[in-house]
Amino acid sequence: MRVVVISDLNGSYGSTDYAGTVHSAIAAIIQLKPDVVISTGDMVAGQRRPALSADEVGRMWQGFHEAVTSPLEAAGIPFLVTPGNHDASAYRGFARERMIYREQWKDRAPSGVSGDWPFAYAVDFGGIRFVSLDATTVGALPADQMRWLESLQDDGGLTVAFSHLPLHPIAQDRETEIIGDPELARIFDTIGADLHLTGHHHAFYVGSADGIAFVAQSCLGGGARSLIGSQARSGKGFTVIDVVDGQLQVVGLGGSDFAPITLSSLPQRIGQLTRLDLLPTQTVVPQQ
User: Fold this and answer.
1) Which is nearest to 129 in space by CA: 145, 149, 101, 147?
2) Residue 212: strand, helix, or coil
3) How many domains does the chain have?
4) Does residue 81 contact residue 39 with C-beta atoms inside 8 Å?
5) Residue 225 and which of 184, 217, 239, 266 are 20 to 30 A apart at CA?
6) Residue 89, by phi and psi: left (phi above 0), alpha (psi -120 to 50) or beta?
7) Mind listing the pLDDT tens digit for each residue in 39-49?
8) What is the spatial distance between Cα 172 and Cα 269, in angstroms, rounded to a whole number?
9) Cα separation, 245 vs 197, whole angstroms
10) Which DSSP letter does residue 31 get?
11) What is the DSSP letter of 66?
12) Measured between alpha carbons, how far is 279 from 208 in angstroms, rounded to an integer?
């Protein structure tokens, strides 16, 4: 089974067009023939103050579907999404954008989904349980979402969680823009989560902590950032995960030709995270 992860495709506030990198990435992804594509959020460019009108938000989603959703649908590739802060911010003043986000995806739910599609939900593909978290605001997840997450329990198979905000900080100038809740790490362990995929920090990193692997995604839109402890700005790209013999094999692809990212170019440690090739988990391993 092959999974591809994309993230942070949006441009400036209200933009309806997508950079050439987005179009070339989608074309390259279709050639890779994944079984499912995941977006870890920020598909459109909302969360502006003063708020965008409903027509403006609708035009942004139309542009996104034309650039991303429709090509994937035409290729027969399922697409799982989770909200970013620019898609469906839970901060006060953006209820309309959250409502439009729900409307845009309500008829695109995968079969067998449980929970609150397209926000916090779970669905099985190819023997893997994929779990989306609704994480568009800084800090701990709401109590009702945490209770729902813990109710999933451990089914004994591979579990991949994904959200927009990460649990741990990855990028410079976004050190505080995290979930940052040790209770979430405990629940990940309880439900048997093997991997947590995240966006928002616009930089690629593969790390592990407490037996769980974490992969922060490169952006495909604007605003690439530098990792904490690195001087170089992360390039644009996407992540490929192949399931081989019960393991999740992870590789980041970036640059103009979407070549594999060299792990030795990444910091050995960022905060609580150790680079995954130095401390691989039992079920998640990096590939060069």
Assistant:
1) 149
2) strand
3) 1
4) yes
5) 184
6) beta
7) 999 999 999 99
8) 14
9) 21
10) H
11) I
12) 7
pLDDT reading at 288 higher than 90: no
Q: What distance in Å separates the CA atoms of residue 207 and residue 215, rounded to the nearest whole number?
A: 6
Q: Which two tokens stand for residue 235?
A: 């390039």
CATH number reported for the structural domain that contains residue 17 in this entry: 3.60.21.10
Rg of the Cα trace of the chain? 17
Residue-wise pLDDT for 31-75, tens only, equals 999 999 999 999 999 999 999 999 999 999 999 999 999 999 999
Tell me if the bond preceding 71 is cis, omega within 30° of 0: no
152 and 145 Cβ atoms separated by less than 8 Å:
no
In the block, which residue shows the tokens 């992860």?
5
Coil, strand or helix: which one is 246?
A: coil
**Helices 182-191 and 143-151 sit at what angle, rounded to 10 degrees?**
20
Strand partners, 248: 243, 284
End-to-end CA distance of the chain: 18
Burial of 125 (0-12, 13-18, 19+ CB in 10 A): middle
**118-121 contacts at long range (C-beta below 8 A, 24 or more positions apart):** 118/81, 118/82, 118/83, 119/82, 119/83, 119/88, 120/145, 120/148, 120/149
Q: What b/e string do you get for 94-118 counting C-beta neighbours within 10 Å, with b at 16 or more?
A: beebbebbeebbeeeebeebebebb
Q: Write out the residue range of the structural domain in which residue 114 sits.
A: 2-286
Structure tokens at 178: 């995290």
Return d(Cα 214, Cα 178) in angstroms, integer.
13
CA angle in degrees (0–180, nearest 5) for 41-52-26: 35
